[in-house]
Amino acid sequence: MRSELIHKIFSTPAIQREALILDVFHYQYENNLVYKRFCDTLQRRPGLVKTIEDIPFLPIRFFKTHVIKSGSFQEEEWFESSGTTSTTNSRHFIRSLDLYRESFLGCFNKFYGSPTDWCILGLLPSYLERQHSSLVVMVDELIRRSAHSESGFYLYDQERLKETLLRLQATNQKVLLFGVTYALLDFAEAYSFPLPNVTIMETGGMKGRREEITRAALHERLAASFPGVAIHSEYGMTELLSQAYCGDNGRFFCPDWMTVLLREEDDPLSLLPSPASNPAYEGKAGLINIIDLANLDSCAFLATDDMGKRYVDNGFEVLGRADNSDIRGCSLLTI
Fold first, then answer.
1. Number of domain units in the chain
2. Single pTM value for the model
3. Strand partners, 290
4. Please, which residues have CB within 8 angstroms of residue 64's CB and are 6 or more apart in sequence?
5. Same domain (yes/no): 299, 265
6. Which of 86, 150, 155, 225 has the highest CB neighbour count under 10 A?
7. Which of 223, 246, 269 represents a domain boundary (last residue)?
8. Domain-embedded: residue 90
9. If the chain, 335 residues long, is cut into consecutive pieces of 10 residues, what is the mean pLDDT of each piece?
10. In angstroms, rounded to a whole number, what is the distance separating the alpha carbons of residues 31 and 71?
11. Domain that holds residue 174
């Protein structure tokens, strides 16, 4: 059953995707004890789940307090969210890294083409300094597959990064620079030069190093320091095995096996209508729910604490964390 679902996740056309999503729901209800108990508490058993709108979405913070596994397996790896010594971090147990690779490589190819088209650089110091980062695993694999002699990670050597970028600009090489927000800001304050062949991929996160700023303000500062640069964003998290990417228009788009829905802020079981089916809901804010079918071995149906908006073109915006996100959503029950 699992191997059959994996094949379908990455090959099913859009017109047949709802049936696949319901199949994954049934699989996880039967094989994930935590999720089954959550569904049972809400009285959303398989016999009562007929459409995607009926599926319960597990509050994402359950990854901080429970082992979320579909099936019994010894994990090949586990990913852990960043945090301070006083916080409880999420853990995502990975049955097979091959499934994660298939997801992030398929997503990258969809939006950016082959990694061999790029020189890929990573400015991710806080992630490199800790173990079990899903972002480092992804960028490391993309660096390896790019096969460019200059591809690689940078820790705190800003001068070397500047020299590398200038050298690559001189050869008109396409460059993709993955960077955590605070490190990109540090670099932009230290240097300023044109980067017309570079795409900066900001991955979010101040990690307690700097004051939080809006995505628009971040992009404005980076553009001022590096004229001609393209600035994109990645929406991903420890609890997901897929990513959404945002180009210059400010909207994120998902791969085919990932879907973003919105729920009412004051009613976590009520989904907002899709703007594609009801244009009156285009741009209406709600809390973000995510279906990530690559999460076959954990939970594919997650209720995040992020606010967002959806649009008719299936793009979405991320507005930031909801107020009182620590108590919203999973206060419905304690498993």
1. 2
2. 0.92
3. 260, 302
4. 88, 89, 90, 91
5. yes
6. 225
7. 246
8. no
9. 96 91 98 98 96 97 97 97 74 98 98 98 88 95 97 92 96 96 95 97 75 84 97 96 91 96 93 94 97 98 97 93 49 31
10. 5
11. 98-246
